[in-house]
Amino acid sequence: MPYRRVTLSQFMMEEQHRCGGSGVLTSLLTDISVICKMISHEVNCGALLGNLGMEETKNIHGEKQKKLDVLSNKIFMHIVTKSKNYAALASEELENIHVINDSVSQYLLLFDPLDGSSNIDINNAVGSIFSILRLPNDTNCSTLVAFLQPGINQVAAGYAIYGSSTMLVLTTGNGVNGFTLDQNIGIFGLTHPNMQISKDANEFAINASRSRFWEPPIKRYIDEALSGIDGPRSKDFNMRWVASMVAEVHRILCRSGIFMYPVDTKNIYHGGKLRLMYEVNPMAFIVEQAGGLAITGYERILDLKPKSLHQRIGVILGSKNEVEILYRYHKEYDRMHN
Ligand code: P6P
After folding, report:
1. Which residues line ligand 1 (CB under 6 A)?
2. What's the rounded Cα separation, in Å, for the pair 200 and 322?
3. How far is 68 from 79, CA to CA, in rounded Å?
4. 146-194, pLDDT tens digit by residue?
5. Interacting residues of 200 by C-beta distance below 8 A, sequence separation 6+
6. Tally of domains in the chain
7. For residue 104, how far is its CA from the centre of ligand 1 (angstroms)?
8. How does pLDDT run across 137-149, given as a tens digit for each residue?
9. Is residue 177 domain-shared with residue 228, that is, in the same domain?
10. How much is the average pLDDT of 33-38?
11. Which of 8, 239, 295, 326 has its CA 20 to 30 A from that of 257?
12. Which domain does 90 fall in, by range?
C-alpha cells in the first residue's frame, strides 16, 4: 500500500478529532475491522481450510447453516466478548440477545455475520453486515427494548464485502467511506472516500423468478423498465441479481441502481425476506448517507419502529429518483385500493 494512503485507523482518529469524540467509536469500529480481516481470511482460503459446505446444524430460523456462517458468527462473538467494547450483541445466528459480561459499554452491536452465504461454494461475493446502537438511558442491555430502536438511531453501520478484494464500507453519520484490505500487511486503506449514489439509474436488481408473486406497483415498475427506450421510461435498463445483498448494495454505491426484495404474495405472511435489524437498517443508513433512499414501498425504512429482533421487512433501496418512482406507484395503488 502506498505509504501516503490514509489507513482506517488514521481515518477514525481524524474523525474522532473532528467531532471531538472520546475515542469510543474508534474502539467499536476497530473490533469490526479485526473481525472482518479474520473472516476475510477464512472466506478467501475456502476449501483449503475445509470451510465450504454445510454444517449438520440448522439456525434459529430452521435454515441449514453453511460452515462459514457458523465460523463467522464465532469470530464476531470471540472478538466482541474479549474486547468488552459493547454491552450486548444480537446476531442473525442467535435467537436471543447475548450480554457481554463485565462490560461497561453503552453500545450495542447487531450483525449478520455472513450474508449471501449461498454464494460461498460457488465463489461469489459474500459479506458481513453490522449496525451499532447506543444503549438508551436507564435501559438494561439484556432487554429487547434496548435493541428495538428505529434505524434513524444508528450510531454507525457498515458492511465488509469479501469479493475480488475485501472492502470495509462504513458510515458514522457523516457520509460513506470505503476501505480496501491490503492482505499482505493486514491494513485497510481509504480507497473510496465520500461514496455517493447518483439520483438517476438504469440498472435494477430483483429476483425475477418471483415475478408471479409481485404486488402491482413492483410489476408496473419492472414492466416499464423492460419496455426500454420505446416505453414510458424512455430509457433502456439493465438487470442484475447476485443473491448477495452486500454485493448488490456495493454495486449501487459504485455505479447507482436500485435493489428490491419487496413483500410479495408468497412472503407476506413472514413480512418479507430480509431482516430489518441487522440487514436492512444498516444498509438503509449507508444508502441514505450516500444520497440514496430506502423504503418498504410505503414507508421510509429508517423511521420504522421494530416489532421483534428478527423481524423481516420488504425493502426497495438505491438511487433516489428511482426509489421515489416506486414510492409514488405504491401510494397510487394504495389510494385506488383502500
Ligand atoms: P434469493 C442472501 O440469502 C439474502 O439474505 C440476501 O443477501 C440476498 O439479497 C437475498 O437473500 C437473496 O434471496 O431469494 O434470491 O435467494
Report:
1. 115-116, 118, 207, 243-245, 261, 273-274
2. 6
3. 16
4. 999 999 999 999 999 999 999 999 999 999 999 999 999 999 999 999 9
5. 256, 319, 321, 322
6. 2
7. 36
8. 999 999 999 999 9
9. no
10. 98
11. 8
12. 8-192
- pLDDT recorded at residue 241: 97
Query: Residue 199 and residue 31: Cα distance in Å, rounded?
Result: 33
Which of 192, 218, 238 is where one domain is finished? 192
C-alpha cell recorded at residue 264 = 410479495
For the chain, the residue count is 338
Residue 272 lies in a domain: yes
Ligand 1 site-directed mutation target among 274, 277, 279, 317, most atoms within 8 Å of CB: 274
The residue among 184, 187, 180 whose CA lies nearest residue 165 is 180
pLDDT confidence of residue 5: 85
Distance from Cα 206 to the centre of ligand 1, integer Å: 10
User: Which amino acid type is present at position 264?
Assistant: D
pLDDT > 90 fraction of the chain, expressed in percent and rounded: 86
Q: Residue 21: its pLDDT value, please?
A: 76
Atom 9 of ligand 1: nearest residue by CA position:
245
Name the residue among 51, 39, 105, 115 with its Cα closest to residue 78: 39
pLDDT for 2 beyond 80? no
Does 319 map to a domain?
yes
> Residues 6 or more apart from 23 whose CB is under 8 A from it?
16
Helix (H/G/I), strand (E/B), else coil: 137: coil
Helical ranges in the chain per DSSP H? 8-18, 24-45, 67-83, 144-147, 216-227, 245-255, 281-289, 320-337
Are the beta carbons of 42 and 72 closer than 8 angstroms?
yes
- Chain centroid to Cα 215, Å, comes to 24
